[in-house]
TrEMBL record:
Gene3D superfamilies: Ribosome hibernation promotion factor-like
GN (gene name): raiA
Protein's UniProt name: Ribosome-associated translation inhibitor RaiA
Coiled-coil zones: none
Signal peptide, first to last residue: none
Pfam families in the record: Ribosomal_S30AE
Source superkingdom: Bacteria
Organism: Flavobacterium restrictum
Length: 100
């Protein structure tokens, strides 16, 4: 599985990239046919404290899933997005099993 991390309008540090890649690698437990993951990290210029946006696009054969979360920290947003993706991938896996 290939993980691409894109930082929009800011420079991302190595620690955050490692955290994102490690968390995305755990998704393979739920569905092993994941081809690639694109993670977009954005900072919105607002006075609101929850200005960190994480969009994760996950590519599986025959489908793409997109999850978008906005939180105070990137780590929190990545964690929430990953949990949503876990549920999506489990559903996808059950659906493919039902067709076999």
């Amino acid at each position: 599985m290939k993980v691409n991390v894109h930082a929009v309008n800011f420079t991302v540090d190595k620690k955050l990239v490692d955290f994102v890649e490690e968390r995305m690698d755990k998704l393979e437990k739920y569905y092993d046919k994941v081809v690639s993951v694109d993670v977009f990290l954005k900072v919105e210029k607002t006075s609101d404290k929850e200005n960190k946006i994480v969009e994760i696009k996950i590519n599986v054969p025959g489908d793409d899933f997109l999850v978008k979360k906005q939180c105070k920290t990137f780590e929190e947003a990545v964690e929430l997005s990953a949990e949503s993706l876990e549920r999506l991938l489990v559903k996808r896996k059950e659906k493919t099993r039902a067709h076999i």
